[in-house]
Amino acid sequence: TPKQGFKVCVCGGSNQVGQPLCMLLAMEPLVRELAVQDLAITMTPPEGIGLDVDHIGRRCEVKAYSLEAVQRPVDHLEECLTGCSLVIACAGWPHNGRTARDLLKLNGNVAKNIVEACAKFCPEAIIGIVMNPMNSLVPAMARLYEKSGLDPRQIIGITSLDGVRANKFVHIETEAPIENVSVPVVGGNAGPCTIPLFSQDPAPASPPPA
């Protein structure tokens, strides 16, 4: 752990996932600098998010970076990404009735642009992808990193929400203290293959008598 803490960037920091994520990261003592990045045309520009988050009573320094829709991250995000230990990509398009194929085409381009910029400006960083379809995007971006001569294991999919939901369901059904519940979830992020392993946690494995 660096003595001064880590630099983290949130690409897509102005959307519904990015905004609370930026707030939580700014409150994390290990984060010394937070870069909030998004498109200038978003409903709430990243500069506004950056100012709000920077007012939190923590030591984290917050900077905002916006791009026009026609600008490529690899050409304009050197200052934003340089020195980052972690880049979280939560940009792109939501489901909203789109098929997995449509999302792969739309979000694949967004993820590719972000990953190419990271390969150039922060090749040592871990890149966490919070975009759909995650089961397709993560291996595709890992392959892109590998072709660049970098470690594909630096590309990860963030699926914590599946585990959080499983833990809460167990807490509701068993009344076990939720801080003691930890249900592993395997199988990826697509609905049909996401499998919570309830038997691997003591609380659901041994439920109280009805």
Molecular structure report:
The chain is α/β, with parallel strands linked by helices. The strands form two sheets. Strands 3-2-1-4-5-6 form a six-stranded parallel beta sheet, with helices on both faces. The longest helix has 22 residues. The protein is globular and about 60 Å long. The relative contact order is 0.11.
Topology record:
Elements: E1 6-11, H1 18-27, E2 31-39, H2 46-54, E3 61-67, H3 73-76, H4 78-81, E4 86-89, H5 100-121, E5 126-129, H6 134-147, E6 155-157, H7 160-174, E7 185-186, E8 195-196, H8 202-205
Parallel strand pairs: 1-2, 1-4, 2-3, 4-5, 5-6
Antiparallel strand pairs: 7-8
Helix pairs in contact: 5-6
Q: Note poorly predicted spans.
A: none
Q: Please report the distance between the alpha carbons of the first and last residues.
A: 48 Å
Principal-axis shape: globular
How many strands in all?
A: 8
* Mean pLDDT value: 91
The amount of beta strand, in percent, is 15-25%
Q: Helix- and strand-based class?
A: alpha/beta
Q: Give the number of helices.
A: 8
Spatial order of strands in the largest sheet: 3-2-1-4-5-6
State the share of residues found in helices, binned by percent. 25-40%
Largest sheet: 6 strands, parallel
Q: Give Rg in angstroms.
A: 19 Å
The helix/strand series, from N terminus to C terminus, equals: EHEHEHHEHEHEHEEH
